[in-house]
Amino acid sequence: MKKCILSFLMAAVLLLAGCAGSSSEAADEPVVKPQNTASQDDEQTSESTDSEAQQTDAAADEGQNSTSETVSQLVSDLREHEAVNRENKEVIDIEEKIYLSQMTDIYMNTEDYIGRILSMEGYMLPDDTGDDIIGAVVRNTPGCCGDDGITGLSYIWDGEVPADNDWIKVTGVLSIRTEGEQVYLILEAQSVEIKTERGEDFVSQ
Question: Do the domain assignments include residue 39?
C-alpha cells in the first residue's frame, strides 16, 4: 500500500525596498507629489512581481519535468527487474515472526522482489483504489502515534471476495501500479484463501 511519491517545494521571494529623506536645505525645493511616487513604485513593484512570477513558473515547470523523468526511470527500471524475476517460481513466504522486517525489506529493496511470488497472511481490508483492486492483506504495526500503523499489500483478484476483517492468505506475483507520478506495489493474486485459524493481528517485528 505504500506509494512512492516525489514532491518538490518551491517558493518565490519578492523584495520590496523604499527610501525617503528630508533636510532643512530642501525647504525651497519642489515637493514630490505622493501620488507620483506611488505610481512609480507601483510600476516598479508590478514589473518586479511579473518577473518573479515568470521565474517561479519556469522553475515549477522544470521541477515537474524532472519529477516525471525520475518516475519514468523508476518504473522502467522496476519493469526490467520484474521481467527477470518472473522467471523465478520459488515462493517467498512472509512469516509472522518477522513480518514487519520482511515487508520493510520489500519496500526498501523492491528490485529484488518485484516479479517474485509472495505468500502472506493477514486480515482483509477493503480497498477501492482501483476497479480491479478488491482489497488488501494487512496487519497492524507500530505507527506514528503508537500502534496505529497498517502494513501490507493491495491485491487484484477475480474470485470470491473475502469479507471485511476475514483472515486470509494471499499468494501472488508482486507487481507495480502507476497513477500519474505515483508508483505503488500490488499483488497479482493467484489464490486467496479464507483461513479459519487467525494469526496475530498486530506484529512489531
Answer: yes
